[in-house]
Amino acid sequence: MKYLRYFADYPSNGPAKFLVRVYVLKILDVASKDNSEDQDPSIVISLGKKRYKDHQRNSQSSDKSMFGEMYELRCTIPEEYLLSLSLYDSEGGSSEELIGQTSIDLEDRIYTKHNACVGLSRKYDLIGPAKWRDRRKPSAILEEICCLNHLPPPSYPDVATVVVNGVEYRNHNNTNSEDSIWSLDKKENICLSILHQWHTLPLCGYHLVPEHVETRTLYRPDKPGLSQGKLLMWIDIFPLNSKGIPPPVDITPPKVEEYELRIVLWDLYGLNIRNLMTKKSVDVFIRGFIGCSDQAQTTDVCYGITDKASFNWRMIFHICYQHSESMLIVKNRGPFTEYEEKIPPNFVLQIIDNTSEQIIASLTLSLTDFPRGVKLPQNCSLNFDEHRKINLFLTRSVRAWWPLEGADNCGKDVLMGAIDLEMTLLPKEQADLVPVGLGRGPPSPLPDPHESSATCFLCYYFSGREANNEDHLCGKSSFIRRHSFMISLTVFAIIVAIYFILCVDTSIVQEYLQNIGILGGDISEEPMQEANQLANS
After folding, report:
1. Structural domain includes residue 10
2. How far apart are alpha carbons 291 and 297 in whole angstroms?
3. What's the mean pLDDT when you consider all of the chain?
4. Is the model's pLDDT at 422 over the cut of 70?
5. What confidence score (pLDDT) does residue 101 get?
6. Which of 466, 534, 481, 478 is nearest to 506 (CA)?
7. Do 495 and 394 sit in the same domain of this protein?
8. What are the strands, taking DSSP E only, across 377-515?
């Protein structure tokens, strides 16, 4: 009987059934025989005589190395103790080629004293993405470990105190009352903290397995010792005869959503060019891009800018956004590789001198957190960061004036003007239903920027300055702007001719034509009277 009590702490030799959850996150550094990236890896899981193949992958990412899959298996120990994960390349044909494999002894993890079935989390939470995954609470695990090490069970004088082997552990955070809804969580978190420090206990202390992601190296039988890649994963094991097995963790990769960003550049106001150049006017265009400047779009050139301009120009950007990380996913394609890059969703606008290609002013807005604009351009200032923030992925559409920032000759940041922007963000499905054109083109074309009449050009050239209420013309209208002197003379000549025809007395014209010999003296009075009546009307 003495020896039976000695072996009472050891597990039974009989078969035991377990539930095994295999979480596969990602594969890294996969070896390729032809140095190509066109691989479509799949996983085959072997457990004893059972074989499970991954027929469908639910990955939302275009990155084929990202799995984000959970496989739930049942096994009987000790017969089905060896778990094997094999990675195959199924690209380009029906046959599959083995890339590499790794094996895990489940029996060692189940019966070890280091609590390796489910790793210890850093915090006890019942909600959220990092919620508690074990079927036992930290207090129950602590009681079992105390029992295995022949220690008295832990006691709880209050909700913020735990006593283990005569040592008191307290929660040093200030609490109001014991009947708080967080009382249970505080007790469990104290027990969890003791478990993480169990190796510090004298004589009976040892390390317990924390929650972690394993990096398993893949090998091939015909190439022993040579790594064929790595597998990021972890395993949770639960006895099937136990109650309260928690639901599995959702590790599906974050979904990448496609959007269409529409930016309409309406007007430019108060452009301060005197700080940068001695010229009274400048020819400018606007360049805009989101993420990286490789995909930048530009407007047409606006000529003769002094302080105001009208563009009426639409830019369209197609973006892929990941909400979980608030980042844009940009695909970069090289000569032999294609990879994804995560960049912040920042929209950059630059006012550029067409002659020197110098950046006169700029504006940077983060689509997830940018200050609200103002209704009037006169109210723009450089401290607009203090305004209430806007997330364009929530508001979807906004129009206002935003300040343009630049640097003077001394390198100091100064206000360079204001710009009227309209920003609209639509999911790809909605954008396809309501298409719009780039620039001012169809569908849904934008109006040309304030096409001026010939009177404005006369005012410009005969007064030596431009009318105050007229904006400068851009693009195709700039042809009229550059040749407006000849057009003005032509219009002026037509106006003078019409004036002489309608307003001058026809008798004077008749006498003048008779004197120069064009008309004879015999002209009846009836036609002349009709001409006079027509002129008077």
Report:
1. no
2. 12
3. 80
4. yes
5. 92
6. 534
7. no
8. 389-390, 397-407, 413-427
- Read off the pLDDT band of 58 (50, 70, 90): very low
The answer to whether residue 5 is domain-embedded is no
Q: Are residues 230 and 160 in the same domain?
A: yes
What integer pLDDT is reported at residue 460 of this predicted model?
A: 38
Q: What is the tens place of the pLDDT at every residue in 434-491?
A: 999 999 999 999 988 864 333 333 333 433 333 333 444 555 444 454 455 667 778 7
The domain total for the chain is 3
Which residues form the domain of 86? 15-239
| Residues whose CB falls within 8 Å of the CB of residue 30, separated by 6 or more in sequence, listed in order | 39, 41, 65, 87, 99, 218, 228, 229
* Domain endpoint, select from 211, 239, 267: 239
Give the CA radius of gyration of the chain.
40
Instruction: Give the CA distances from residue 494 to residues 456, 462, 487, 490, 512, in Å, rounded to whole numbers and listed in that order.
Output: 16, 17, 11, 6, 21
Asked whether residue 250 is domain-assigned, the answer is no
Helices 138-148 and 183-196: angle between axes, nearest 10 degrees: 40
DSSP conformational letter for 456 = H
The answer on 125 and 93 residing in a single domain is yes
Choose among 137, 132, 197: nearest CA to 164.
Answer: 197
Instruction: Tokens for 444, please give them.
Output: 């849904």
pLDDT in tens, 481-523: 445 566 777 877 888 777 666 665 556 656 655 665 555 555 4
- The answer to whether the beta carbons of residues 345 and 76 sit under 8 Å apart is no
DSSP designation for 436: -
490 plus 432 within the same structural domain: no
Q: What are the C-alpha distances in Å from 212 to residues 70, 135, 293?
A: 16, 17, 39
Could you tell me if 436 and 381 lie in one domain? yes
Greatest mean pLDDT among 185-189, 234-238, 306-310? 234-238
